[in-house]
Amino acid sequence: MHRSRRPNEGRVLIDTSVWITAASPDGDRVVRRTVRELVVTGQAATYEIVIAEVLRGAGSDGEAEAMEAELRALDVLPCDGAGSMVAAMGRDMATPRQRIADLFVAAVAWRHGAALLHSDRHLSQVAARFGIPETAM
């Protein structure tokens, strides 16, 4: 489980931490440009927990519906069977209290050979530990 996986055709799993910054009118320009480029080139990917976290921050049902449509237009990576991998990753980490959501993001990226784009120091620790290619914003 500690081996690195090669990125799958440049696919990048974008974490909630980056989506929130990119969606903010005052969000960092570099983050916004990076996300836009990944979406336009078809490299952007997401998965169910990220979608749920992003939608939780919507201001209204209408905003949530629009956000969900945009996210589901991306490559939505399945997370089938990731539970046992998340448990193993959690047991292997030096800090057993690693956030479950971060472990799921990492497990899904690892299973699909995707790189991670995030702004979360905890996710950086997981990516480094399991050899997942990453870009921290």
Largest sheet: 5 strands, parallel
Give the overall shape: globular
The ordered string of helix (H) and strand (E) elements is EHHEHHEHHEHE
The span between the termini is 26 Å
CATH level 1 class label: Alpha Beta
**Residue share in helix:** 40-55%
Number of structural units classed as domains: 1
- The CATH superfamily label reads 5'-nuclease
What fraction of the residues are assigned to beta strands by DSSP? 5-15%
Radius of gyration: 14 Å
- Going by helix content, strand content and strand pairing, the class is alpha/beta
Task: Kindly report the average pLDDT value.
Answer: 87
Strand order of the largest sheet: 3-2-1-4-5
Beta strand count? 5
Low-confidence stretches: 1-7
- CATH topology label: Rossmann fold
Protein described:
With 137 residues, the protein is of the alpha/beta class. It has one domain (12-136): Rossmann fold (3-Layer(aba) Sandwich), CATH 3.40.50.1010. Helix content is 55%, strand content 11%. It is built from seven helices and five strands. The chain has helices at residues 16-23, 29-40, 48-56, 61-72, 82-92, 100-112, 121-130; strands at residues 12-14, 44-46, 75-76, 115-118, 134-136. Helix 1 crosses helix 2, helix 3 (48-56) packs antiparallel against helix 4 (61-72) and helix 5 crosses helix 6 (100-112). The longest helix is centred in the last third of the chain and has 13 residues, at 100-112. The protein is globular and about 40 Å long.
